[in-house]
UniProtKB/TrEMBL annotation:
PROSITE patterns reported for this sequence: INTEGRASE (PS50994)
Protein name: Integrase-like protein
Organism per entry: Kribbella steppae
Gene Ontology MF: a single term: nucleic acid binding
Integrase catalytic domain sequence ranges: 7-189
One Pfam family it belongs to: rve
Protein family according to the UniProt entry: Belongs to the transposase IS21/IS408/IS1162 family.
BP term (GO), one: DNA integration
InterPro entries: Integrase_cat-core, IstA-like_C, RNaseH-like_sf, RNaseH_sf
Length: 331
């Protein structure tokens, strides 16, 4: 056995990142209680992005880890960045994709989002946390440098405090690259792709016929709609902050997104409109009753003599104009 002094050199390679190329992504679940409204509290996930070249960090708390909310979080951060990295690095997050039979497969929602941006997505192999070690270390950095001593009044307050802190964190000297991330950011951003000319469809999107109770459901919560469109199809779109309902391109409902669960959110104007419509319908029924005119439920329609069909199919012998059957028998 050779002594250590005589062993051959065994250098370790350093991972190099090109400007504008890779951005590592991860979900951070902060050990902090955030009020969600309606007396509920929780710890929603935080989408974290870290640039491989400049080490710039971006983060935003999202409502859930479901695909509509996760993709909406991506788009919000990309809008803040003002450019699109050429490749996103993810692990096997269920809303992003997974490895199956030795092949990386994206979910349908994330594949559509990736295609609309014209970028690539690299899925790390299972049990390979070092593949996105930059963002993993940042999660720990957030817990030790951002969270201590802070309290939050809600998810919006959390995002405001986090955004303010990230401005300071990105300006701090990084030993690994020998400078602050902001010093490399101009070169990094210049090498990224431009934002798409048309914004991709992100968030929740459903099309339903508005029921008589004039509410639609998104992520376990019910939101009121103008009852004047009861019975018609409406389109419901929800991002991280707003729920918008339209009918034929006309907005018939808009609410602030509720992050609590199993809540009913009612616009007072919709409640009043429902009362007026119900009052008018009752008055119409009373008037029809007093004048003897049939209401909608009492309209008299013509009744068909079903014996005509029996005669048509030969089930009975037709009756002549004199009351005798065609075979001469008296009817």
């Amino acid at each position: 056995m050779l002594r250590p002094h005589y062993l051959p050199s065994d250098p370790a390679s350093r991972t190099e990142y090109g400007a504008g190329h890779r951005v590592q992504c991860d979900l951070w679940f902060p050990p902090a209680v955030v009020p969600l409204g309606a007396g509920q509290a929780g710890s929603p996930p935080v989408l974290v992005m870290t640039s491989g070249y400049s080490r710039m960090r971006w983060a935003v708390m999202i409502a859930s880890r479901q695909a509509p909310d996760l993709i909406a979080g991506h788009w919000q951060l990309l809008q803040n960045i003002g450019a699109v990295p050429r490749e996103l690095v993810w692990d096997n997050e269920s809303a992003v994709g997974c490895w199956r039979r030795g092949k990386a497969t994206l979910t349908g929602e994330f594949e559509t989002f990736r295609g609309s941006l014209g970028i690539g997505v690299h899925l790390c192999r299972p049990r390979d946390p070092e593949a996105k070690g930059l963002v993993e270390r940042n999660n720990g950095y957030f817990e030790t440098s951002f969270l201590p001593g802070r309290t939050f009044t809600g998810h919006q307050d959390f995002n405001t405090q986090l955004a303010d802190w990230l401005v300071l964190a990105n300006a701090r000297h990084s030993r690994r690259i020998g400078c602050a991330p902001t010093a490399r950011w101009a070169t990094d951003r210049a090498a990224m792709l431009a934002m798409p000319p048309t914004a991709p469809a992100v968030g929740w999107s459903v099309r339903v016929r508005l029921p008589r109770d004039y509410y639609v459901r998104i992520a376990s919560n019910d939101y009121s709609v103008d009852p004047v469109v009861v019975g018609r199809f409406v389109e419901v779109a929800a991002d991280l902050t707003t729920v918008t309902i339209t009918c034929g391109g006309v907005v018939v409902g808009r609410h602030r997104r509720c992050w609590a669960r199993h809540q009913t959110i009612t616009d007072p104007a919709h409640r009043e409109a429902a009362k007026r419509l119900a009052h008018h319908a009752a008055a119409a029924r009373d008037q029809a009753t007093s004048t003897g005119r049939p209401t909608g439920a009492e309209v008299v329609v013509e009744r068909r003599d079903l014996s005509v069909y029996d005669a048509l199919f030969g089930l009975t012998k037709p009756i002549g104009p004199t009351g005798t059957r065609v075979d001469g028998e008296v009817a």
